[in-house]
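Protocol step 4 of 5: obtain the predicted structure for the target chain.
Materials: sequence only (see below). No template structures provided, no constraints applied. The aim of this step is simply to have a reference model before the mutagenesis design in step 5. Sequence pasted as it appears in the construct record:
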Amino acid sequence: MITDVHIGEFLQKDFVAELVKEINLARPDLVVIVGDLVDMRAELIGDFLDPLKNLKSIYGTFYVPGNHEYYHGVDGILEKIRALGIRILGNKNEKIAGINLAGVYDLAGIRFKNLEPNLDEALAGCDPDIPTILLSHQPKFIKTMQKDVDLVLCGHTHAGQIFPFSILVLLDQGFLHGLYKINDKMQAYVSSGAGFWGPPVRIFAPSEIAILNLSKD
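Step 4 output (structure tokens):
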């Protein structure tokens, strides 16, 4: 799982290639990219994302957009990402390896009145007899959910990125970083993200590629 790569002015093709190298070393069954992959308009991306074509996993790579994709023209960015062979889970799901993998568009879609998140659409047709994992860029989407899933995977927070901004992030989102137990059925993992936004620095908020091992227990 990676989130918040923020490919743009500072982080470009070399950084994506290094991420792909590290992910492939982990030999994942499945790769998910949970929003804010790019921070620039589609026509400026060029070949920055091309290394993502080299991701190796058994079941492929899946993606949902974050708020920053909306800031730079989400429709054009989704076309670029789809062309890489990455499957976009915008308000939809796929049954993969004994799980329902679902995704929602970002909450920013409500503001932009385009590609708004819809949990009912995202979960439509899910097999009720197997676990469901939901990709949602902003963890505060969890507060709006009227249905439970087994696991929600989120990003957006950067774990605060620069202390003490983590306090403000926690107040806004209700989550910061790590694994949370939402209720007796549902858990959430909030990634600190692989890149950064704004100043090229992190303080007490290290970046990560999250390796999640799922268990039936």
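Step 4 remarks: The beta strands are 31-34, 61-64, 87-88, 92-96, 99-103, 132-135, 151-154, 178-181, 187-190. The helical segments are 13-25, 42-45, 67-71, 74-82, 108-112, 119-123, 165-173.
Proceed to step 5.
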